[in-house]
Design goal:
Order of helices and strands: HHHHEHEEEHEHHEHHEHEHHEHEHEEH
Radius of gyration: 28 Å
Number of helices: 16
Distance between the termini: 34 Å
Structural class: alpha/beta
Largest sheet: 6 strands, mixed
Number of strands: 12
Length: 445
């Protein structure tokens, strides 16, 4: 049976032809003039993310030169920013998935957004608290502050939780020193503590404490709260040994940190406090970790007077806002930076599989990617994410050969366009060409 099975009543051939013409015109307009909306502070975010990538590369190279091993099962991307499950300077438990998620340079862009939300600008002074637990997030903070021209006053805690910078010979203080010597950042911690429970390495052996003190000494950083380990009095034979005493946070340790910050600030006002992780002096015990929000904190939480003392709380109580870098997995989901590092590849969506393959290629130092119809089975959101990634790569000087039959994709990504038909080159043009010129090169006109 020929002809149309259905047609709208009352519509003439002329009307249908007009609708078809309008549809074709709209399609051509969309293909030729795709809309593109950049995020606020796009340039600053791009610079910060690139700086973070540079810093991570420097740390990876320094680790390789030291002959430190990398475990492919826990650090599949080979970043060397993910440490061991246990070491003499490991302060407590940690989340491997959080550490794996943190090694994304784009977290620096998130910190830029938070800094802008607080109205921070070049020349401002901020207090910063970091530890060895999340070296990649420390790098993200340093990168954002560096690109925004903000001056940090840094206090570091040397110990690290599981999977952090817990190699005694390559602690966070050593990483910071490498980044300074390689002129990635000019920053040096103004003071360093042992870190860990109570900021006093409670639970770490005497051997581990000595390793932490040596790390502070070899990096020539003034120590705060660093007391040489003393031999504990031995219980009488047959007497029951008391359980280890985990004292509450000492208010003096908070005061000591606040003194370091304000003495180094001098006449400059401290505009914000930036904290990475959940150090007990920085945010208090588990109560503080639950009360303070990830990201921007402008006011102290309810019940602050009943909470254990903390540096973050002290700043908020004096009207200084804070940026709290914590709950890494939640942040990754909120800002679209997540790939579950524990998932096997067959469980991932197609767009995530592509991101994994691109990451693998980059960490193998590939500088030219060839993608054949990469958007064929992607959702519109996945296409946008892929294009953002590809634009970042080409902006960093990497080459891209993008094979597609979708004209708007070719025009939005390419500098030079070559047309192939039946295995032969039939035309060439540039992305600045008009759509008719491109259609002519294709042979469609």
């Amino acid at each position: 049976m020929r002809g149309m099975y259905w047609k709208p009543e009352g519509a003439s051939q002329v009307q249908r032809a007009l609708v078809a013409a309008l549809a074709i015109t709209g399609l051509v307009a969309v293909e030729r003039f795709p809309s593109e909306e950049q995020q606020p502070f796009y340039a600053e975010k791009m610079l910060a993310a690139r700086k973070a990538k540079e810093a991570m590369d420097v740390i990876r190279d320094a680790s390789e030169r030291r002959g430190l091993r990398v475990r492919s099962k826990t650090d599949p991307s080979g970043t060397r920013l993910i440490g061991e499950v246990l070491s003499p300077i490991t302060s407590g438990s940690g989340s491997l998935v959080s550490k794996q998620t943190s090694v994304n340079p784009n977290f620096a862009a998130v910190v830029v957004q938070w800094a802008k939300d607080l109205g921070l600008k070049g020349g401002d002074t901020v207090a910063v608290g970091v530890s060895g637990s999340f070296p990649a997030m420390n790098i993200a903070v340093y990168s954002a502050l560096h690109e925004l021209g903000i001056e940090p006053i840094i206090i570091s805690s040397t110990a690290a939780s599981q999977w952090g910078a817990n190699n005694p010979g390559f602690t966070w203080l050593d990483m910071e020193s490498v980044l300074r010597k390689k002129e990635v950042f000019p920053y040096k911690s103004r003071a360093a503590s042992l870190g860990g429970v109570g900021d006093d390495a409670i639970g770490i052996t005497e051997r581990g404490r000595k390793m932490l003190m040596r790390a502070i000494e070899r990096n020539e950083i003034p120590g705060i709260g660093v007391v040489p380990p003393q031999e504990e009095p031995r219980a009488e034979e047959g007497a029951e040994e008391p359980p280890p005493e985990l004292a509450p946070i000492d208010q003096n340790r908070v005061r000591e940190r606040m003194r370091v910050y304000y003495e180094n600030a001098g006449d400059r006002p401290i505009r914000a406090y930036v904290n990475v992780g959940g150090g007990t002096v920085s945010v208090g015990t588990k109560v503080g970790k639950r009360k303070f929000l990830p990201g921007v904190n402008r006011r102290p939480p309810k019940g602050i007077d009943e909470m254990p003392p903390s540096v973050l709380g002290a700043f908020l109580q004096t009207g200084v806002p804070a940026i709290h870098v914590t709950r890494i997995i939640d942040l990754a989901e909120e800002y679209g930076l997540e790939i579950d590092p524990s998932a096997v590849v067959w469980q991932l969506a197609v767009g995530q599989k592509q991101r994994v393959e691109i990451i693998k290629a980059l960490y193998r130092d590939a500088h030219l990617l060839i993608l054949d119809e990469p958007t064929a089975v992607l959702t519109p959101q996945e296409v946008d994410q892929l294009f953002e990634t590809l634009n970042h790569l080409t902006a960093d000087g990497n080459g891209l050969i993008f094979i597609s039959h979708k004209l708007h994709e070719v025009l939005s990504l390419s500098d030079r366009i070559t047309v192939l038909r039946q295995g032969r080159v039939t035309g060439a043009t540039t992305s600045n060409s008009s759509l008719p010129s491109l259609l002519s090169a294709i042979g469609a006109m």
